[in-house]
Write a structure and sequence with these properties.
Blueprint lengths: L2 E5 L6 H14 L7 E5 L3 H7 L6 E4 L19 E3 L2 E3 L4 H8 L1
Parallel strand pairs: 1-2
Antiparallel strand pairs: 1-3, 4-5
Amino acid sequence: MDIRLLYFDGCPHRTVAEERLRSALSRVGREGEEVRHVLVETPEEAERLGFIGSPTILVDGLDPFASGGEQPALACRVFSTPEGRAGSPTVDQLVEVLS
């Protein structure tokens, strides 16, 4: 499984997303799985990587939380969660996409 955490420098939600991703990997029995961190620095990189905001989590090259209408941008990202809008998916949402 190829897991990447894309972010821009200074993203306030990167740490929470990483912690939740690690918790989710542990819950699905993949605690040793490598997570590649990818710093996105320019609009051109955002476009090339399909980066629609920070943080973006890609699983095998796909963004499981994209709805399809987002445009690439160096911006903070908002996720729909059962608790409302948040800067990171929940652990349960991550477990679902990693299972």
